[in-house]
Specification:
- By secondary structure, this protein is mainly beta.
- 3% of the residues lie in helices and 44% in strands.
- It has one helix at 9-12, and strands at residues 2-7, 18-24, 28-29, 33-34, 40-46, 50-55, 62-67, 73-76, 82-86, 93-99, 107-108.
- It has a five-stranded antiparallel β-sheet with strand order 1-2-10-5-8. The chain has a four-stranded antiparallel β-sheet with strand order 3-9-6-7, with no helix packed on it. A two-stranded antiparallel sheet has the order 4-11.
Length: 123
């Protein structure tokens, strides 16, 4: 994935906000992960990326994909396990990301579940 920094402490002196653009190549998926204490908002510019979360409200945990398209927004709360996918075999997806930390926190997980999440720890 290619990330382009736009608004940050480095570029404009922002204290709490980071914003930039991510290009997700065709047929790409991130590892299962969470973003620590950071809140993340995502705006879909182009493509049809999918965001996969674990639904733990039923009797058994179930992966729930959120399929998106241009103009959609996605919110990822702090510490929530998820992964991003671009299932399109030919076209990249472009998204704008805003987060509440200057640091790009990525805590990789062995699986899409809560067993390795330590709430309160930054990473």
């Amino acid at each position: 994935m290619k990330r382009l920094e736009a608004i940050s402490g480095t570029t404009v002196g922002a204290q709490s906000l980071w914003m930039g653009q991510t290009h997700v190549p065709a047929s790409t998926a991130s590892a299962d992960h969470h973003r620590g204490a950071s809140e993340t908002a995502i705006y879909i510019v182009s493509g049809n990326p999918t965001f996969v979360f674990l639904d733990v409200d039923g009797a058994e945990p179930v992966e729930r994909p959120i399929e998106t398209g241009p103009g959609d927004y996605v919110f990822v709360p702090p510490f929530v396990p998820h992964r991003e996918e671009n299932p399109d075999p030919e076209h990249e997806a472009v998204v704008v990301i805003a987060r509440t930390t200057q640091e790009a926190i990525v805590v990789n997980l062995d699986a899409l579940d809560w067993s390795q999440v330590r709430i309160g720890e930054p990473h």
